[in-house]
């Protein structure tokens, strides 16, 4: 980050920081998605497996598994990733980039596991999840960026100014 502060000026390019943020967000994305999806599947009486999270075939709204994956992905985006992205990135203008990168890595991983996603349900689920995560994280960052900067009150500044002035006057008299 620049020496002038978090919200001011240009930031220097730090590729290792960016890579570590991407890896952190991807790990949290998959971990929380699998935990939420497994919890929803357990509550719905469905068998637990990792494969459906990375196979586009299972993202269908006509099956219980697809509905579980859809709601787990949306809950993950709203309740987990919105806050995690905001905390990791700390800038509203970077939220879209990091969420998009996270979902692109998920796309490539799903492509590697089960082929290119051809399911309409997969694309709807992931696009909605990316939109919700971006909106949540940007709102949190903007809210933080717009917080009031606490300064000393005028009366505090005036009393310290008068105290230093009287100290200077007193030292001049000796």
TrEMBL record:
<comment type="similarity">
    <text>Belongs to the SYS1 family.</text>
</comment>
<dbReference type="GO" id="GO:0043001">
    <property type="term" value="P:Golgi to plasma membrane protein transport"/>
</dbReference>
<protein>
    <recommendedName>
        <fullName>Protein SYS1 homolog</fullName>
    </recommendedName>
</protein>
<keyword id="KW-1133">Transmembrane helix</keyword>
<feature type="transmembrane region" description="Helical">
    <location>
        <begin position="96"/>
        <end position="114"/>
    </location>
</feature>
<keyword id="KW-0333">Golgi apparatus</keyword>
<dbReference type="InterPro" id="IPR019185">
    <property type="entry name" value="Integral_membrane_SYS1-rel"/>
</dbReference>
<dbReference type="GO" id="GO:0005829">
    <property type="term" value="C:cytosol"/>
</dbReference>
<dbReference type="Pfam" id="PF09801">
    <property type="entry name" value="SYS1"/>
</dbReference>
<keyword id="KW-0472">Membrane</keyword>
<keyword id="KW-0812">Transmembrane</keyword>
<dbReference type="GO" id="GO:0005802">
    <property type="term" value="C:trans-Golgi network"/>
</dbReference>
<dbReference type="GO" id="GO:0000139">
    <property type="term" value="C:Golgi membrane"/>
</dbReference>
<feature type="transmembrane region" description="Helical">
    <location>
        <begin position="66"/>
        <end position="89"/>
    </location>
</feature>
<dbReference type="GO" id="GO:0006895">
    <property type="term" value="P:Golgi to endosome transport"/>
</dbReference>
<keyword id="KW-0813">Transport</keyword>
<feature type="transmembrane region" description="Helical">
    <location>
        <begin position="120"/>
        <end position="142"/>
    </location>
</feature>
<keyword id="KW-0653">Protein transport</keyword>
<dbReference type="GO" id="GO:0034067">
    <property type="term" value="P:protein localization to Golgi apparatus"/>
</dbReference>
<feature type="transmembrane region" description="Helical">
    <location>
        <begin position="21"/>
        <end position="46"/>
    </location>
</feature>
